[in-house]
Amino acid sequence: MKTKIFFIAAATLFTITAINVFADPAEPTPQTTAEDTASTPMPTVVSPPVPKTITFAGENIDFDRSDMYERLDRELSQMCYMHSSTMLMLKRANRYFPVIAPILKKNGVPEDLVYLACIESSLNQRAYSPAKAAGLWQFIASTAKQYGLEVNDYVDERYNIEKATAAAARYLKNSYAKYGNWESAMASYNGGQARVTNELSSQLADSAFDLYLVEETSRYPFRVYAAKALMENPSKYGFRLKASQFYAPIKYTEVTVNSTIDDLPAWAQQQGTTYAMLREYNPWLRAKSLPVTAGKSYTIKIPKKESLSRSANTIQKQHLYNPRWAE
User: Fold this and answer.
1) What is the pTM of this model?
2) What are phi and psi of 165, to 5 degrees?
3) What is the DSSP track for 227-288?
4) 140 contacts 131 by C-beta, under 8 angstroms
5) Residue 67: what are its φ and ψ, rounded to 5°?
6) What backbone phi and psi angles, to 5 degrees, belong to 290?
7) Which of 139, 151, 239, 290 yields a CA-CA distance of 20 to 30 A from 325?
8) Which CATH entry fits the domain spanning 53-241: 3.40.50.450, 3.40.50.800, 1.10.645.10, 1.10.530.10?
9) Of all helices (H) and strands (E), which one includes residue 61?
10) Where in the chain are the domains?
């Protein structure tokens, strides 16, 4: 009897040992904790609404076609969930749209093209890309010079909002005349006129909507449409801002300079401001001096002190560029 009990005990011990030996060390026995049993609510993630149509530059764009719907859905989803970038873009728009829109209109380009600048730079006037494109409209140096902008070590008018906007308008107007539609004109702004022209011809298409292009260029018009949809009604897409949180337009004293300034920091001090302020509001200035050749002149903006005070320039909803931007 003792012998039988011994063998039963030994067999049991062997079985337990075998289980331990052959158990997968990468899969420890799960243990239930108080944290596991507690209910932890996750933040709600919703898919942004995709409009059936968008009116852009006086034309109705229909997104019933599956590929067009999905392309717009992608851009709206990304824009909605890049919270900080989109929110800053909205705040800056109140400062820059009043400057950009009239220049586009003056040059015969629809106001809706302001949204192209949003996609190019998120309305960051000092934007500079890895491809060496600069300013709100992200011109590369060669194209900037082609459209009349000065680019050198002392002056870079790609950062001059008024002059760069006029140059962008000329480019877009030229492209529209070539293609007859704004989607192709916008695609050419990203991919170049030569590429879009060649692809329209080789693919037997009339519109960038029907072109197989590199992904960045293919997405480009839809990013512009997404910016318009969201920025026309931000609260619909979850952005809730107060009017006072938007950036107010800056008022300036404009000084015409027609002779060389050897020392811009000293000159700024004479104007009652600082070199830092000079560069902030005249980002086209690229050095601490400004050579001016005979017959040439530049306009330098000196921000008015009262304009720089947020408490003295509290924005009311009705004074926003688009009152629907704020709650």
Assistant:
1) 0.86
2) -65, -40
3) HHHHHHSGGGGT--B-GGGSPPPPPEEEEEE-S-BS-HHHHHHHTTS-HHHHHHH-TTB-SS
4) yes
5) -65, -35
6) -135, 95
7) 139
8) 1.10.530.10
9) strand 59-62
10) 53-241, 252-309
